Amino acid sequence: MTARIERVVTEGVVEIDGTEHKVENNTWIVGDDDEVIVVDAARDAEKILEQVGEREVLAVICTAGLPDHVSAAIEVASRDEAVVALHPKDKPLWRETWRETWPDIDMEDDGVFEVADVQLDVLETPGVTPGGVSLYCEALGAVFTGKALQADGPGKLGGEYPALADQLTSIGGRLFTLPGDTRVLAAHGDEVTIGDLEPHFDDWVSGSLTRGDSSGDEDGPLSDGTRISGIKLNPDDE
């Protein structure tokens, strides 16, 4: 069977100053009619597994250790005794959601996962989190970028760039070396291509991302649920 990519959009609600805001996450499913890998199992395991159906889940891969990337990982993986993969530098973040267990696989740069007739290559893309990764599938012409790169540019954490220099290095050195027609499939929002975003890179490097923000997104839906989550990027590893 030919491998394909499917998207599941899950929703949650966060409260800011007494106002509730809807948050949407993309969970990506890669595979064929028999087996799949789930990327960023967010929030709603039942909805994700409904899309998976009777297919076997081989692995759940987390592009970051943030709560909205791992919150459904254990339940989705446990149905078929699949493995959960995370970069070791994001284990402290994982611990804020899952205090009684650890991921099964420590991902490393240039690692490979195989499903159906394709492979996913691990690209380290830190910045938003220390252990952020992207997954490049050459056969399907797609890269799963988590929060590293989204349709509107580099992703943020709680409305800020925790390590923008590292993030831009990741984007320029790893993601923008991919073919221009590569689909960018992020953890939030719509898809674009590498070619759509690459022309903006010089502006990002020159400081356009940090020269003030008057978008006023406080009054509308958030692109992620981290603004008030109290996440610590370097918590003590307990």
Notes on the protein architecture:
The protein is 19% helix and 31% strand. The chain contains seven helices and 14 strands. Strands 1-2-3-4-5-6 form a six-stranded mixed β-sheet, covered by helices on one side. Helix 4 (91-97) links the parallel strand 5 (83-86) and strand 6. It is globular and about 50 Å long. The chain starts with a strand and ends in a 33-residue tail after the last helix.
At a glance:
The protein is of the alpha/beta class and 238 residues long.
Sheet of most strands: 6 strands, mixed
How many helices? The count is: 7
Count of beta strands: 14
Q: Could you tell me how far the N terminus lies from the C terminus, measured between alpha carbons in angstroms?
A: 44 Å
**DSSP strand content:** 25-35%
User: Helix proportion of residues, in percent?
Assistant: 10-25%
For the largest sheet, list the strands in their spatial order: 1-2-3-4-5-6
Instruction: Note poorly predicted spans.
Output: 214-238
Shape descriptor? globular
What oligomeric state do these chains adopt? single chain
Rg over C-alpha atoms, rounded to the nearest angstrom: 17 Å
In sequence order, what are the helices and strands, one letter per element?
Answer: EEEHEHHEHEEEEEEEHEEHH
| Overall pLDDT level | 88
The structure class reads alpha/beta
